[in-house]
Amino acid sequence: MGGGGDGSDGKRGFVFVKDFQAEEDGIAMAEARCLDAIRSALENLEDQLEFFHAIKSQQRTERDATMVRLGQSRSILARRVAEHQGKKYIVIEMA
């Protein structure tokens, strides 16, 4: 009784294909390369996000400092205009 596909030959219904392992290894390697590329892209994205966060923080600090200087300039200008008490100067009229 060793013939046919009844499993009596010790293989129990499995079909063995020549070079199947090599094909499977190739698929595994392709998946590994793909996952590595994804990981690399995510690391690059993380670096870019950190960079943009640092830039945004720097810009916010610069904007805040500029707003403080602008407020100080406005106060100085308002005080100087008040000191002139209605005197006409060309510079004031142009402003």
UniProtKB/TrEMBL annotation:
Coiled-coil regions listed: 35-62
Annotated protein name in UniProt: Uncharacterized protein
Origin: domain of life: Eukaryota
Organism phylogeny: Eukaryota, Viridiplantae, Streptophyta, Embryophyta, Tracheophyta
Originating organism: Musa balbisiana (Banana)
UniProt entry keywords in alphabetical sequence: Coiled coil
Any one GO biological process: chloroplast fission
